[in-house]
Structures
1.
Amino acid sequence: MPVLDSSKIVAALRGAFAREEGREALLRIAAEKIKAAGPPYTSVYLYMLHGKELLLEAFAGRETEHTRIPVGTGVCGTAVASGQDQNVPDVRAVENYLACNAWTRSELVVLIRRGPLILGQIDIDSDVSNPFTPDEEAAVRQVADALAVLL
Ligand code: SME
């Protein structure tokens, strides 16, 4: 069983959408509820694609100086450039990693896609090494897929 209970988070997002809460609220709810799952989820960042840049639109956890990331830069920008989710078990092994703090050990980026379109991504930092199993990744993808429909 994954740590993340995605069905609860998807239900909360649908509820917010039904109450006509906007994009900002939906992204904030996703960030806060994923972080609330606790370890290995340390910090959660919602970067949305604007042209050739990812802009930080919501987060929960530690602040980051990386509020704008060009496509192709870092783990986040690589996900968009390659069209592939990124599961990095040890960030110290990644050459183009953009560090936000000294404690992060691993990172998971799951793209928010609507058909062929990439809308943005859920970026998760963990203080634990290699915590994101295929089940865990699938749970995050459920949240990303819900956002793709509701945003
Ligand atoms: N580590 C990311 C940058 C974003 S911060 O983790 C919030 C990267 O390498 O793209």
2.
Amino acid sequence: MYSIFHNYCLKSLNTFGIDAKADHFIEAKSVADLKEAIKWIKDNQFQWFVLGGGSNVLFKGDYKGVVVKPAILGIDDVYEDEQYVSLKVGAGVDWDNLVEYAVNRGLGGIENLSLIPGSVGASPIQNIGAYGVEAKDTIERVEGIYIDTLKSFMLANDGCQFGYRDSIFKNELKGKVVVTHVIFRLSKTPKYAIHYGNLEEELKQFGQLNIANIRKAVIAIRNSKLPDPKELGNAGSFFKNPVVDITLVEDLQKKFDKVPYYPVSNELVKLPAGWLIEQCGWKGKRIGKVGVHKMQALVLVNYEGCSGDDVIYLAHSIRESVMEKFNVTLEMEVNII
Ligand code: EPU
């Protein structure tokens, strides 16, 4: 039996700390609970959506409908050979608890994704990534249910259409499925990914090269740049890094000293949105209750009880500046509800 609450405050369930309410809130602790809850929602024709760890959403206001939180827990071994261990993980497991668990068992592959806020169920949806690693690199398959039929599905990695902060779950299957479990294939003999930014440099202070120290270094870098949502409401990167034609970088190099970029193909490059926003003078700026983080311009922060609209207004102003100065469109990474 699932638990249902009415007129429910969502403030502690979204890392932006927006004080919004949902007409109904359901916590489903098992696949059976989830199916039962969806059936009830459909019978009553409510609008609804699935909330993961709340680290990538911005509530525009109160939600007139049902918010469903899959609280399915558990980390279970499902396969092991000489090199790999596969873990089946419930969608409701906190992402960083999984990373800590894997690192403590000496299983490599997700240590670079340390301290990312959110739940395991959300990890394949936007293919979370940091410091040169993406969730897709270790996801073996995704399990869940179809909303229409309430039947189970299993999708192998190559069927998930993973891309940069993208997957089939944000496109073709959007609104059609709920993820209940993710199966990760982790390595007993990890290959280290340490060449992103200053990770290699940061690692030196922790000594030996191993996954435990990579985790420590990533945590140190994140803590130095990204605000802790418990102290300052935020949803991590607010925008995606735009993919642009290489000729734009060539133009920019004539005007700016050092233009940071990551090659995507022979013609395309990814520009750090944080750099574009900083160049427009937004870094560290505060407008009333909201602002742009002083250490990382890609992160918008809630200083004190802001509304979703305050954030959206700031986001639009930033987009306009970047468009005006660079002729580049910034796409939001955060889901507006
Ligand atoms: N930069 C600036 N000013 C800023 C921020 C960044 O100039 O205020 C430039 C610097 O040149 C820096 C470069 O951008 O070297 C890259 O910055 P950073 O390493 O902080 O990464 P990012 O591209 O801004 C992405 C992810 C982050 C992830 C980091 C590290 C996106 C949208 N964001 O940010 O993910 O932690 O790389 O891998 O891809 C998130 O998704 O919530 C998130 C925090």
